[in-house]
Protein: histidine kinase
Organism: Massilia antarctica
Amino acid sequence: MSFWSALSAESRDTFWRSLQALTATRIVISLVLLAYLAFDQKDVASASYHLYTETCMAYLVLAGAFVLASVYVRNHFLMQVVLQIAVDIAVISVLYMAAEASRGSLVILYLFPLAGAAILAPRLLALFSAALVTLFLLTDSLYQVFLGESGMPLTQAGLYGAAFFAIVMVVSRLAARLIRQEELAARHGADLKIQQAINQIIIADVDDGILVVDRDGHIFAGNPAAQHMLGLANGDSGFALSEVPALEPVAHAFSEWQQQVGPATVAGVARAAFVTVKPYRDSGGGDAGTAAWSGRRDLAAHLKLRFARVDTVDEASERCVIFLQDVTAIENQAQELKLASMGRLTASIAHEVRNPLSAIGHATALLAEDLHEPGQARLLKIVGDNVARVNRMVEDILQLSRKVQPNGDPLLLGPFLNDLKAEFDETQGVADDIVWLGNTGAVPVRFDALHLREVLINLLTNALRYASGGVGSIRVYVVTDSAGGMELHVQDDGPGITPDVRAHLFEPFYTTSSKGTGLGLYLARELCLNNAAMLDYEYRFDASGFGVRAATGRFVISFAPPLGARGATSNRKATT
């Protein structure tokens, strides 16, 4: 029984199905034998006619019993095989003895039980069956020679026996090879199921989002983290990322990655892309893609995307994996750590830093009146510049603790931006045509005017530092969605911010300028949040206004919904 116990459950099922097929074939053979008797009775001796008929009928009944046993009695497999093979050999031997002229054709029937034994039984048992058949044929030939009657020649009986042994050996080896292959496939299948179960647990519990898409961006699957980040409901799939306005940032980043790695790259992983997925406010219409996207989200998410291509046999079945990491929490955690240290410093910073700083600044001014040599003036200027920088940092730190409640009066952006532009041009000494004001919107926004002025002055100052200085090199304009949500864009024609810098852009004390404090953009975002708005740096794949249609970066202020649209359905607004 070691032969049977060593098999896997899948292989045992295969053996039972093979035995059922063998028993069904036995019924067909018994019916053919009865038909042969009905149409050609002269080959059967009259004395043996009843024996032949009764044997065929008994064989048919036993064949039916074997079918029922193989279907309903799923145990003692080897015993059933041995019993059936023994019955087959005995029945064929009886028919062989009863026949006269057709003995040569009946010998071929031995191939049926012998082949079945070679496939279903151990090789030793199959060879034993072949030996029994060979001994029977040789004994019958010797008996016919002893009686002096015509029968199968002894040489022919020996050749039949040798052929039976050869067939049993070949079929047994082929069957053993198939069994080994099936066992290997069963083990691989079990390992694959275990690996799939492990992968499902890991994918379900991992914090990073995993999204499986095809080359056109159609979603096939996503883990719970990805569904939460993108606002997908459980089971949302079958639609393309580009079909949903809220998911256009991911779609454009995926398209750009495909262009970077090229079709020949199998598992290319480009550098990370950063996108912002924001709440989308739909007016109630929506297209098919928006209808398929059933998720909802209240807060914007800043996502870090990585891509990988799965190795597939053809392009039609190509699959790509998008890894999503919500870096919003990481950014907030980094800011909290810095602000915790800064909070302990703020209590004593006015007396411990500002007073000595004022004394240094006053002493520097007095020295400047008496020292006129170029080298001394240069050193005094260095001291004065650094005093001013530290003083500005102290002012920014103190301002963090002043959570002034914003003024809730509606603000029209048109007159406000015109006044702000005139003031900025005058204070910065820039030409009137450098800052270009586009559409300013006709609907008032909810934002404190003093807070918005401080935010825009900060953004325009940064833009002026990196812009080319040409006509319209700094652009300020409003974008309105279908539900009336408004965004204020501040964009310049400079080189833009790299994704690496973008990852730390709004962290306090992070700066790429030797003269900056690293608090300007952080304060600007805090003021926006204080007015229920959001400030972010986004990569938009649209006409930039500078004659280029590409992924251009710009600062975007997303205002709170208008007062008259607060009850509207809140979907997500896509940005890139």
The chain has a mean pLDDT of 76.
